[in-house]
From TrEMBL:
Keywords: Mitochondrion, NAD, Oxidoreductase, Transit peptide, Tricarboxylic acid cycle
SUPFAM superfamilies hit by this protein: LDH C-terminal domain-like (SSF56327), NAD(P)-binding Rossmann-fold domains (SSF51735)
Keyword field contains Transit peptide: yes
Originating organism: Arabis nemorensis
Record protein name field: Malate dehydrogenase
Annotated PANTHER family: MALATE AND LACTATE DEHYDROGENASE (PTHR11540), MALATE DEHYDROGENASE 1, MITOCHONDRIAL-RELATED (PTHR11540:SF58)
An individual GO BP term: tricarboxylic acid cycle
Domain Lactate/malate dehydrogenase C-terminal: 175-338
Gene3D superfamilies xref list: Lactate dehydrogenase/glycoside hydrolase, family 4, C-terminal, NAD(P)-binding Rossmann-like Domain
EC number of this enzyme: 1.1.1.37
Family: Belongs to the LDH/MDH superfamily. MDH type 1 family.
Amino acid sequence: MFRSILVRSSSSAKQSLLRRNFSSESVPQRKVAILGAAGGIGQPLSLLMKLNPLVSSLSLFDIANTPGVAADVGHINTRSEVAGYMGDEELAKALKGADLVIIPAGVPRKPGMTRDDLFNINAGIVKNLCIAIAEHCPHALINMISNPVNSTVPIAAEIFKKAGVYDEKKLFGVTTLDVVRAKTFYAGKANVPVAEVNVPVIGGHAGITILPLFSQATPQANLSDDVLTALTKRTQDGGTEVVEAKAGKGSATLSMAYAGALFADACLKGLNGVPDVVECSYVQSTITELPFFASKVRLGKNGTEEVLDLGPLSDFEKQGLEAVKPELKSSIEKGVKFMHSGALMCR
Ligand SMILES: NC(=O)C1=CN([C@@H]2O[C@H](COP(=O)(O)OP(=O)(O)OC[C@H]3O[C@@H](n4cnc5c(N)ncnc54)[C@H](O)[C@@H]3O)[C@@H](O)[C@H]2O)C=CC1
Ligand SMILES: O=C([O-])CC(=O)C(=O)O
């Protein structure tokens, strides 16, 4: 059957892109693998990662349609070489030597579904991909996009523990889209330029577990409690807003690809030793009593360098945090239980 495609980019384009951050001699070689690369998120994410000058090798894996995506993206005259891999028998090659693995593989929601309704299908997909990661690139950073993130990250952790390769500093649930949404919605209400806005979002990545901290937003604006409540709810329901607008044709793909590319870029900068790279992410954590929690994380050469404190919360946010805990706890336990119910051994 398949088929792998290798395309070299022109050296002049490579030179001009690299000049932004590094000389071409000093920029490290970084292989990035995208699992689920032919999907709604995977395709635009592949495009955006092809535009990232920190990537030297872009490995696109899916169970279908990867040759076309790789051929298409591979014609773009930027630094990275692109290779497409399709089917389980090519997964090892796709992963070998990867520094960063981004996982948007799995089914998306339809109207009326919760993210947790995706658990039964996506848990199995994530499990198999993580078993292969443990074998073929155990030291890579993992950016988990597949939903329900609140459970798929604990599933990945259990797989890596079982394989004896777990490093909590290298496993990230991607919650950047919540931050992107919070910034956009806040800028609209606060009437400030969106490019200047920063808003931490903590907790997890589903409904009320998504907790934007508008009390820490910059620049600060004098918004009423009603507006802050509405902004919080819109951020929590942002995914559902897109699912309903797409009316059965999937969930957020373009904004997610943008958010995923932002987070991957931050991880690569951290790996390359760029100082003070801070992003929110769902990681193993001790800042609350929950074993996984999203908060600001400082990224470094080995992944997470520091999980930052939550900082001062408003009374409204303190209440929101208490509401996060039982739902997040049960999603984490569901992922761990899945891995201890015989699912680990059935590959
Ligand atoms: N973390 C976040 O903020 C967000 C997460 N998501 C989640 O991302 C996931 C993907 O969403 P879409 O791209 O819209 O779905 P999609 O259905 O368009 O694409 C999924 C891709 O995964 C592939 N796939 C399925 N099983 C696979 C396997 N075993 N190995 C490799 N590839 C496999 C499919 O062939 C398909 O190309 C969903 O679970 C969705 O809920 C979506 C938006 C935001
Ligand atoms: O809502 C969904 O199902 C997809 C997602 O996670 C998001 O858009 O935040």
